[in-house]
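At this stage, I put together a protein sequence along with its fold in token form, as given directly below:
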Amino acid sequence: MNINPNILNEFIGSIGQNNVLYELSDRLVYECDAETIDAVIPDLVLLPNSTQEISQIIKIAKKNNLKIIPRGAGTGLSGGATAYLGGICLALTKMNKVIEINTDYNMIHVETGITNVDVSKATAKFGLHFPCDPSSQCASTIGGNIAENAGGAHTLKCGTTSHHVNGIVLVNDEGAIIQLGQKFNNPQDLDFLHLVCGSEGTLGIVCEAYLNLTPIPKHVETAAVYFASLESAANTVSTIIANGIIPAALELIDDVTLKAVEDTLQLGLDRNASALLIIELDGNKEIVAKEKEKIIKILSQLNNTTINWANSTKERLNLWKARKASFASLGRIAPQGYVLDGVIPRSKLALAINLIRKIAQKYDLAVANVYHAGDGNLHPCLLFNKSNAGALEKVIQASREILLTCLELGGCLSGEHGIGIEKLFEMNDAFTPDTLKFMEGLKVIFDESNMFNPGKILPNPKLCGESRLDNLAKFKISC
């Protein structure tokens, strides 16, 4: 531990002995998030219980020139919660209270350590829910969702987290408690709120949030559509959207993932299909019926396609269970999986699938594909065994080629997982030096001393010419 004992005592005096973790065995638990290639043990872990305690922590850290790495539940997939330059891990998981529910304005005020799913559980009795549903929603926190601007399976229709955040309470680099946005979504200030959403904890600590709730859909229709080829499924996604239908979700799973999920859960999925497309429609019963009819007509024109509409809530939930268990099920195939998060234009989905396959073949890697196909958000998962010589190097090189392919097709580096450490070097490919310099200027305005989550999102000019592998070696990071 690299924290001065006197400073350690200041933190203990501020938030209590039980909320300060300094033993190596305790800190080791916080060495990485769900992106495990980059892993560094933080110098200290703090577990605040309130916004006021976070304010005190920041004041102590500021006075002693310490770095702060905010952390939710550690479900992130880009290394955003990893202290790879050292510093203090600020874990907000004890800040999980519902402060207020206002059904007149469909609003909930929460501490940001609360989980995504617990927000919906707290509001279900009022017929309301928080519509963003990342696969990790049972564990991921609202603070983490805001940091990454998380989406999920229903992003196509409901949007990402930023579309449902009315306001936040943020602690800045001076320890001041500031509100950005408003309680009831009637902003009268400069819109710094949406600058903070998706900033990955680099601009301040988001301690509380005012979230906009939406009514739970009154009618839902969900279908499992099996295809003889992944390309046919991808083209069908574009056809559905081109016909003016905006489903609640369009989720695409390839044959590798489909077999792993069925072997794991035994839900009765068709293991022989080359792709599974989950289509969900929701809303007014009459409108849903018309959209269902249009989709049936589109699918009837395709060969070797089978469509099964869920006939009960259980069948529908089983389909979503299959989707949300996808990555965990891949552990049956390989001990490690590296999930990517590129975005491409929806019209180029079939092309992207073929190009990703070729890249995986080039490096002799197995790849499983799970896509938020409706909005072009790709989640290819490179499967490997870290104990095999050269395996990590292959994965890093292949992942870079896949991300650059997304850029070449007119897409971007991330749909919802963020940049973090994982895509740091590709930022030089995605943006011009002037654009990156402008972003750095915005960071300085919020965080002049670079206290918050240093080394994330924006590549240091010194990194130009280096590679991810150089960086791993430099910081002695291993998987």
